[in-house]
Structure formats: structure tokens, C-alpha cells
Design goal:
By secondary structure, this protein is an alpha/beta fold. It folds into three domains: about 160 residues, Adenylosuccinate Synthetase, Chain A, domain 1; about 90 residues, Adenylosuccinate Synthetase, subunit A, domain 2, CATH 1.10.300.10; about 160 residues, Adenylosuccinate Synthetase, subunit A, domain 3 (Adenylosuccinate Synthetase, Chain A, domain 3). Helix content is about 35%, strand content about 20%. It has 13 helices and 20 strands. Strands 9-7-5-2-10-1-11-15-19-20 form a ten-stranded mixed sheet, sandwiched between helices. A hairpin with a 2-residue loop joins strand 16 and strand 17. Helix 3 packs across helix 4. The protein binds guanosine-5'-diphosphate, 6-O-phosphoryl inosine monophosphate and magnesium ion.
């Protein structure tokens, strides 16, 4: 039995989808515990590409139970589109379960997300516009509508009327927008609720039962650790808990049940949206990485900001997750560069520091102190084991692992399932 949490070690898009898919083959349950359709997880199976936003990537295996648990926020039309898209490609959704405690994203959340970004003007967060922040704000304010409310017409109407009383005042007086009508929302959303109701379940006991019967469970983190609402680069982050602790909070299992935390580390750094990014590259190398790594958002199509690997941020990420393994992805993208840099410290206010500053304002000032390493020229997508990699690629991996302070368990050298090297049985 194993209970593994897979988290993004950086700012998201580390290839968590690919790594979870790899582990899902030997698992009986895959759980999404945070975020909503701000996530975009890609899995490549042969010639086919799947982009999942809400649904755990385990759905691609008929034997895997897939849970969307309490810590998630769900956009009903978005989820149904995703389900229909999968069904049209022959993927069964019989194994998809949605917690009654997950929160529902409603039209006013998406509207407020967009309006708030506009109001922030020069201080935009660069959100995905999916209503994520406002939906989590309502959850914290105890004004949210949960899946169980949503699937009960009387409760849905009553909670919606309460919510709209406040939202419409905001829309009218703060943003100068017309109010929303409860009837119109109900008319549009009740058919969604009727369709989703069959998937609603009490998910925590399902996880406990799987734990008790020795099943292999994978928790599929969304976003990245540095976007965590408490431990990330506030306020430039998402509103949920992408870190390993989020798997407990968002699911209803205790931390002692988890026996492995794998951080997925992109071989370089990317970030979408605003916020400090000390190793960001604005030159030809940044361009090379963006084009070679196809670094355009899976969810919004935005070009991702690219830069060298930031090992100060990575060591911090290892701490806040209690990582006991790292999996390095997209190593092949670095092929062809004459030399590589890793940020091993920052210069902040004339001092050299090795720790990741909790204050985003300090991080904005951080200048990277780089270690330079030799690159490799050959393409590595056909490597079958670590021994097939050029020496400089192996030295690079070794250094990343040393600076993270965490042993390496997997390396990904391409998007396909067979482009995965693993160093130990998980
Ligand atoms: P996630 O959000 O962490 O699941 O990552 P995304 O799916 O948003 O972005 C990762 C992208 O890299 C996807 O397009 C994957 O198909 C692709 N990918 C995954 N692993 C590798 C790899 O090792 N090499 C290359 N070149 N691409 C990869
Ligand atoms: P996956 O799971 C990368 C970023 C957004 C923005 C910030 C807040 O595919 O790795 P939000 O819409 O969540 O309020 O936006 O968080 N962001 C992501 N960046 N990958 C993601 O998910 C992300 N989900 C949110 O770009 O900067
Ligand atoms: Mg992604």
C-alpha cells in the first residue's frame, strides 16, 4: 500500500499531470484536493493528448477511482464540458466522484474575478479568470454554495438568494454593473446540478476505506507550492493549498496517513501571471526555452514566463511540503544550450542570502547568484535509463537534488508515458 502526494514544486505546470498519470497505472485511487479549472494537466497517450482541468488524470485508466474532494472549487458548465469531451473520446466517467462539500463556482465569481483584476489596474495578479479567488473568498466567509446545496433545488435557491443580496450590492455600487437575477442563474444551472448529482458522494469515507484496505492512492496536486495561499508569494498566488498539507485539509485524511511526498520540479522555472520571479530570462535563452518547451498555458494559452531553475525557491518548497523525493521534468528542453545556470543564492539589499524571503517585496528585489554548469547538445528523448543521459545532464540532476536537499526518484525526458525514467519502485 502507498499513499503518495504529488505536488508542483514551483509556480505550476511542472508536468504533474504526466507524473500522476505514470503513478496512476499502479494505483486504485487518484484524488484532486485543491483548486478548480484554473489547473491544466496534460497527459499524452500515444498520439493522443488529454488536457484535464477539474478531473483527476487517473480517469484515463478504467480501474482507477477518481475523487474530486472537499478542497476543490467546481465550475459546473466547465466540468460538464470536460466530462463530455472525455466521454466523446471513449473515456468512462463511471469512476468519477465529487464531494458534496466541494464549493461551486457561480457566474458572479467569474464576473468578480474579472472586475477585480480590472480594478487592480497596474497591480493585476494575472488570474485565470475562472472565478477561483472569489469562490474561495465566499467559502472562507461562509457564504459559499457547496455541491450538496447545489444539488438540492430548495437549498440552492435559498443560498443563492442570500449570496446575491450581497453580490448585487457590490456589482452595482462598487463596479457600476447591472445586478444578476437568481431566476436566470437557477434556470441555467439546475440542469447542470441534475447531471452532476449522480456523481456526488461522501468522498472522505471512500478514502478511509481505501487506506484501510491497503490500496495505492495518489493525490494530484494542482498549481504549484509557491502559489499556496499561506506559504506562497502573497498576494501573487492562488487561493487554495497546493502544498502537500493541502491533501489532508482538502480531503479529510490525517498527515500520518501519507507516506510519500513527491515534488515535481521542472528542470528550469516558469511562471504564469504576475509576481516576483528572480531568475526570469528576457533574452534569447528565455525565448529558446519557451519555444522548445511549448511554454504556453494549458488553460489560458498565455505565454509562460521562463527562467533558470531557482534552487533557493526549490529548497524552500522542499521544506514546506516535507518532500521526500523529487521528480525532475522537461529535462530534454535544456538540450542544446551551451551552459546552464542554477540560482543557488540571492543578493538582497547588499547581502547574500540562502533562504527564500517570506515577503514578496523582498523577493522582488532579489538578484540571483548563479552557479554555472556545462550543458549538453544531444537530444535525450529516447533515453531509457539514467545511464543513457550525457554526463553533464546527470551532473545537472545531481546538483538540483543536492541543492533541493531531496533525493531524485524520476526524470521525464519528453511528454509521452515511455519518456519517463524511474530510479526506484514507488
Ligand atoms: P501540469 O499543470 O503540472 O500538469 O503541467 P502542464 O500540463 O500544464 O504543462 C506541462 C507540459 O509539458 C505539457 O504540455 C506536457 O505534455 C509537457 N511535458 C511533460 N513532461 C515533459 C517532458 O519531460 N518533456 C517535454 N518536452 N514536455 C513535457
Ligand atoms: P496547474 O495545475 C500555473 C496562477 C495564475 C495566476 C495565479 C492566480 O496547471 O499547474 P487563479 O486563477 O488561480 O486565481 O490565478 O495563479 N495559476 C497557475 N499557474 N499553473 C496552474 O495550474 C495555475 N493555476 C493558477 O496564472 O498567476
Ligand atoms: Mg498546467
Amino acid at each position: 500500500m502507498s499513499c503518495i502526494v504529488v505536488v508542483g514544486a514551483q509556480w505550476g505546470d511542472e508536468a504533474k499531470g504526466k507524473m500522476v498519470d505514470f503513478l496512476a497505472r499502479e494505483s486504485q485511487m487518484v484524488i484532486r484536493f485543491n483548486g478548480g479549472n484554473n489547473a491544466g494537466h496534460t497527459v499524452v497517450v500515444g498520439e493522443e493528448k488529454f488536457k484535464l482541468h477539474h478531473i483527476p488524470v487517473g480517469i484515463l485508466y478504467p480501474h482507477v477511482r477518481c475523487l474530486m474532494t472537499d478542497g476543490m472549487v467546481i465550475d459546473p458548465p466547465g466540468l460538464l464540458d470536460e466530462m463530455d469531451g472525455l466521454a466523446a473520446r471513449g473515456i468512462s466517467l463511471d469512476n468519477l466522484y465529487i464531494s458534496g462539500s466541494a464549493h461551486i463556482i457561480l457566474p458572479y465569481h467569474k464576473l468578480l474575478d474579472t472586475l477585480e483584476e480590472k480594478r487592480r489596474a497596474g497591480k493585476k495578479i494575472g488570474t485565470t479568470g475562472r472565478g477561483i479567488g472569489p469562490a474561495y473568498a465566499d467559502k472562507a466567509a461562509r457564504a459559499g454554495i457547496r455541491m450538496a446545496d447545489f444539488c438540492n433545488p430548495n437549498r440552492f435557491l435559498s443560498r443563492l438568494e442570500d449570496a446575491l443580496a450581497v453580490k448585487n450590492s457590490l456589482l452595482r455600487h462598487l463596479y457600476g454593473e447591472p445586478p444578476l437575477e437568481a431566476e436566470a442563474i437557477i434556470e441555467r444551472y439546475e440542469p447542470y446540478a441534475r447531471r452532476l448529482k449522480g456523481h456526488m458522494a461522501d468522498t472522505a469515507p471512500m478514502v478511509w476505506e481505501a487506506l484501510d484496505s491497503g490500496k495505492n492512492i495518489v493525490f494530484e496536486g494542482a498549481q504549484g507550492s509557491l502559489l499556496d495561499i499561506d506559504q506562497g508569494t502573497y498576494p501573487y498566488l492562488t487561493s487554495s493549498h497546493p502544498i502537500a498539507g493541502g491533501a489532508c485539509l482538502g480531503t479529510g485524511v490525517g498527515p500520518r496517513q501519507i507516506n510519500r511526498v513527491i515534488g515535481v520540479v521542472k528542470a528550469y522555472s516558469t511562471r504564469v501571471g504576475a509576481g516576483a520571479f528572480p531568475t526570469e530570462l528576457f533574452d534569447d535563452t528565455g525565448h529558446y526555452i519557451r519555444e522548445k518547451g511549448h511554454e504556453y498555458g494549458t488553460t489560458t494559452g498565455r505565454p509562460r514566463r521562463c527562467g533558470w531553475l531557482d534552487a533557493v525557491a526549490l529548497a524552500y518548497s522542499a521544506r514546506i511540503n516535507g518532500m521526500d523525493r523529487i521528480a525532475v521534468s522537461l529535462l530534454d528542453v535544456l538540450s542544446g544550450l551551451p551552459s546552464l545556470k542554477i540560482c543557488a543564492a540571492y543578493r538582497i539589499g547588499g547581502r547574500t542570502v540562502n533562504s527564500f524571503p517570506a515577503d514578496n517585496v523582498l523577493l522582488e528585489q532579489a538578484q540571483p547568484v548563479y552557479e554555472e554548469m556545462e550543458g549538453w547538445q544531444e537530444e535525450i528523448g529516447n533515453a531509457q535509463s539514467l545511464d543513457d543521459l550525457p554526463v553533464s545532464a546527470r551532473l545537472y540532476l545531481q546538483r538540483v537534488s543536492e541543492l533541493a536537499g531531496v533525493p531524485l526518484c524520476m526524470v521525464s525526458v519528453g511528454p509521452r508515458r515511455d519518456q519517463t525514467l524511474f530510479l526506484e519502485e514507488l
